[in-house]
TrEMBL record:
The chain crosses the membrane at residues 40-57, 69-91. This is Uncharacterized protein. PANTHER family: CEREBLON, SULFITE EXPORTER TAUE_SAFE FAMILY PROTEIN 5-RELATED. Keywords: Membrane, Transmembrane, Transmembrane helix. Belongs to the 4-toluene sulfonate uptake permease (TSUP) (TC 2.A.102) family.
Amino acid sequence: MTFFFKQITAATCSFMVFFSSTMSAVQYLFLGMEHVNTALIFAIVCLIASLIGLVVVQRAIEHHGRASLIVFSVGIVMALSTVLITSFGAVDVWRDYTSGKYMGFKPPC
């Protein structure tokens, strides 16, 4: 019974990722963004990488018997992205400060 729910969960997650990325791609096409060939290459690479990741995670869960591996991996990615975004933002602020650029509010448009 739990195997059935795991399959439904994996299918739902895969569909939502596919749906949101497809809608983002359609939005870029409607807005006139170009580089369609590069986007297709990235789409193929991401599809292959996501399939490999799905197989690796499923085997790791079967081997260890713990679904918490997913939670830990998402937590690690979130922590790493927080550190990297903060670091790159600090570097940009320091670069603007040392070059004497205006660092006040910018117009939204």
